Known about the structure:
Elements lengths: L1 E5 L6 H13 L6 E4 H11 L14 H19 L5 E4 L3 E4 L2 E4 L3 H7 L3 E6 L2 H9 L10 H22 L3 E5 L4 H9 L5 E5 L8 H17 L3 E3 L7 H13 L3 E6 L2 E6 H5 L2 H17 L3 E6 L6 H12 L3 E6 L5 H5 L3 E3 L2 H10 L7
Parallel strand pairs: 1-3, 1-6, 2-3, 6-7, 8-9, 8-12, 12-13, 13-14
Antiparallel strand pairs: 4-5, 10-11
Helix pairs in contact: 1-7, 2-3
Amino acid sequence: MRVVVTGISGSGRESHLRQFVEFAKKRNVEVKLFSVGSMMFEAARKLGIEIKEDKILDLSSSSLNFLRATVFEQIMREAEKHENIIISTHACFRWKKHVFQAFDFHYLNELSPDLFVTISDSALPIKTRLESSLQWKGRLTLKDILVWRDEEILLTKSIADYRGKPFYVIPFASSSETLYNLVFKQDSKKIYLSYPITHIEDRDLKLADKDEFKNRLRKLGLTVFDPGEVEDSDLLYKLRELRESGKDRLVVKDDGVEVNISIDEIEDIVEDLLDQIVARDYQLIDQSDFLVVYYFSPVMSPGVLSEMNYGFSNNKKVFVVFKGPESPFFNYYSTKIFKSEEDLIGFLKKEGVIIGE
């Protein structure tokens, strides 16, 4: 398998892929990881050119293209020695308020990847990681991050669509098993897990139950896309807390790094954030085989109902686990409703959807 994995700076792409390689190795599957960015620095050093981390994107396009071509020539040679390779790269860069491509169509055609994946994360952790980087510290606002994140997904998907290959977005927080299934267990059914997030009592307890159910489905051989693994709405909760407390800055401390974000910077992205949450969840539905709705609240959730409607109207089966009173809306937009997790799992086994124990 030849897989291209993209993701903007700060998305956690590299660490996710390193964990994935170790995950595969424990299952006796060898995967060779080619990290284009670090290989470009190494190629420059071999040519006697020392490029500072914070200056590489200031190089001329011809210099960047030359370094990239040098790296891909190396990848082409080494790829023949490995059955499974992952090429970790950017699809594009957002630098000095403009965007430019970070790939070479010639080498993509030569390598002929089987699969394209973009690793994404929530805006706030991306911002925190970028602020701890010499190259990116102070360069990107939350708005810049949202735009770049969206561009990276769109461009990668466009390349995959043009080449007629599968494309998936996976959250940084997802388990290595998700990517492993997409690469090596393509018969594993992919599900989108829909559930209420707002206006629920005992929220932490209910979400813990959801996680337990999700992990159970994964252990049964299903590939589960959980929208909560990219949780941009957390930033909206923090904005509300700032307003209520009268503070004008959000202070985030992570791994020894302190990041200060003005309330104005957060307020500037509210509409963008809300729209991207919906668009991202619909992308996760599009790349799934069916939906499982795990509903544990008597209050109707507009978000869950919207996801059911979208999936049901776009050729997806919608299976609902709902222990409350019947709702005409749930009935209308569902394929089948179950009273318990056991009933759903029993049904999926009977239908041959579950392939493992």
